[in-house]
Amino acid sequence: MIKSLNKADLPLPQPRVSDPEVLAAEIIEHLTYGIGKDATVATPHDWLTATILVVRDHIIDRWMESTRAVYANNAKRVYYLSLEFLIGRLMRDAMSNLGLMDEIREALASIGVELDVIAGLEPDAALGNGGLGRLAACFMESMATVHIPAYGYGIRYVHGLFRQQMADGWQVELPETWLAHGNPWEFERRESSYEIGFGGAVETVAENGEEAHFIWKPGERVIATAYDTPIVGWRGGHVNTLRLWSAQPIDPILLEAFNAGDHIGALRESNKAEALTRVLYPADATAAGQELRLRQEYFFCSASLQDILRRHLQQGNELSALPDKVAIQLNDTHPAVSVVELMRLLCDVHDLDLDTAWDLTSRTFSYTNHTLLPEALESWPVPLFERLLPRHMQLVYVINAKILRDARKNRNFSDHEISHISLIDESGDRRVRMGNLAFIGSHSINGVSALHTALMKETVFADLHKLYPERINNKTNGITPRRWLMQCNPRLTSLIRDTVGPDFLDDAEKLKALDAYADDAEFRKQFAAVKRTNKEQLANLVASRMGIRLDPSAMFDIQIKRIHEYKRQLLNIVETVALFDQIRTHPERDWVPRVKLFAGKAAPSYHNAKLIIKLANDVARVINNDPAVRNLLKVVFIPNYNVSLAEVMVPAADLSEQISTAGMEASGTGNMKFALNGALTIGTLDGANVEMRDHVGEENIVIFGMTADEVGKLRAEGHNPRAVIESSRELSQALAAIASGVFSPDDPGRFSELVDGLYQHDWFMVAADFNAYAKAQRDVDALWADEASWYSKTIRNTARMGWFSSDRTIQQYNTDIWRA
């Protein structure tokens, strides 16, 4: 029996100090007693773990202080629900935010360990894919920095998306093994475990004339168990929690079956449960893949909402106070099923009536939309949804009836408008629209750039905006300057601090002071030297991983992002082929030496995206081995893009490729990271590029191509890509070379499908924008030739990007939406 103690009687932990000698002793103590290793035989991985545990100890003190303060004040919390949290490596980030970087480095050096060596061994947490997940990670750090009490909720993926390798230029997907040796940052919370149900049936109970009560009896159940990771803000002032859910079966082994010799069948339930948290975004081309993805989304949403309600009631709050104490942000449509899950919990578990439950639900949720692509606004076949979540399907119909009756009776909506706002899409096979559910169930719906928000009102949510004209608002994305300047580019950070002082470390908008030095010749020289060193670091990485030698004096032209046709890596590659032709045809010209660098992953079932990766690698093989190019052009596709690779590539970029089809990129955050680190942007007026142009000045960014309105108009009027291609000699020759097998002699027809798509429909306007893009690239060449002007422009980019801090974004969310 455990004796109950009065908290006042408990001894208080002693404050930790940052003296290097003490830190060294703490590292040795963790190595000895936490890992069970003697220093004389410890491996670099042992030293890494011991160091992380020491840093973690320093975080825990602040974590507990932060939690106590929130409980004492019964403060409102923000709950950020996201299927992705691309947090990357945590050790450097945590040390920097705690102000321990130099002290830990000195402590390790005193015991013969090099910080940079062991830091490079920390695995990237495989919890995300691209911008959506990295944004969630930046937001978590910024919420801690600006002292907003918050929990992030997601899934503890064992393998994440996948580890990308290349086999003869083709993407190969392998399991990511980041958890193979444990995760020293996390804490298992067995007490925070919840049952999650699937399938089964709904029973109606009505007694003594009372209103019917519904009881869902799931056909199968699993256990969700929480794992907590502390997220520390800048200067360690506040620490929030990232809570990830792992799935376990209720019965890990069917012993009777095992003893009968059915060893595989005996583990069936265990395997089924564990599949929920194995992989991020299981391929949904099959019915089984769709079901697993819906199961994943409901699993983490149900566990999170049960946890939120338990905490809310445990603090002595009434359910009626839920919107006053809880703000739940849905990061895209993946957590949208939370809307009906909260309704189920309030109605079926806590006995609230439907109208009261709906009022509380819609005042508690808010929804961030990240895409204008209708196909990316998730929807689920009604039979699948009803079979897997029968009670939720009932509630979807109830909510839908309420909304549609109101729209018809009070707003005079037409049949056409009703069909667009309905939660059920009946244009083909009936499907549940998760984007509409998230919109209807939230009091605030935000876009992530000014252009994106305006287009939301005109396109995907036009009729819902008419029904609820006050709900849509804009919150332009941002990035944390701690990770994307101070950590990834310490040389530039030091130069800025030495030049304008340290104020920008606490307020990124103070970077504006750097503007005064953009035309200072000595500062430009120092700025260029930092860029050169960063490029040398990237060149060394490419040489070690791929055996390709790069010249750091060449322009490093970089495009890193998820591989997708609308992001137009294909446009970049086709222009590279055209440039290759021009260099060989006109050797007398003064060509600017360029290195074209690509990185990014394609979804396993996305055929064209994987074909684009193969094309990039095939083009690289030919160009890099052609002596006529004279090293004026090189092409490199670096495999397995992740946060750690980005932290090397972003500071090394001279030119940032942000060339998506106008009107299709919601915001982008890579564009912000590059510009903050002194790269010139070449891009369309898409997403946050529009606002970047306004902040850095149109003379300090290279904009080309059609606007979103022009793209829409051309699509509506009819685009004739064949005529466009045939009128452009450079484009037609480049496409002919690709289609005829110049870059794929082993399979001449390999890329004919990609090229035919440009001739036939060119939906993403690759052909339509090619001439403007090629001209813009030659304008970039001219800018590069004037070194003083180039660095003046890139310095002004760094100086004027402070507004794009995620601290500003989060403060706007809090002021306008959460009010925490």
UniProtKB/TrEMBL annotation:
Pfam families xref list: Phosphorylase
Compartments, as annotated in UniProt: Cytoplasm
Keyword Transferase listed: yes
GO molecular function: glycogen phosphorylase activity; pyridoxal phosphate binding
UniProt EC number: 2.4.1.1
Xref: SUPFAM superfamilies: UDP-Glycosyltransferase/glycogen phosphorylase
Main enzyme class: transferase
Keywords linked to the UniProt accession: Allosteric enzyme, Carbohydrate metabolism, Cytoplasm, Glycosyltransferase, Pyridoxal phosphate, Transferase
Recorded catalytic activity of this chain's protein: [(1->4)-alpha-D-glucosyl](n) + phosphate = [(1->4)-alpha-D-glucosyl](n-1) + alpha-D-glucose 1-phosphate
Gene Ontology terms: biological process: glycogen catabolic process
Principal cellular location given in the protein's record: cytoplasm
Family: Belongs to the glycogen phosphorylase family.
NCBIfam families noted in UniProt: P_ylase
Its job: Allosteric enzyme that catalyzes the rate-limiting step in glycogen catabolism, the phosphorolytic cleavage of glycogen to produce glucose-1-phosphate, and plays a central role in maintaining cellular and organismal glucose homeostasis.
Name of the featured protein: Alpha-1,4 glucan phosphorylase
Lineage: Bacteria, Pseudomonadati, Pseudomonadota, Alphaproteobacteria, Hyphomicrobiales
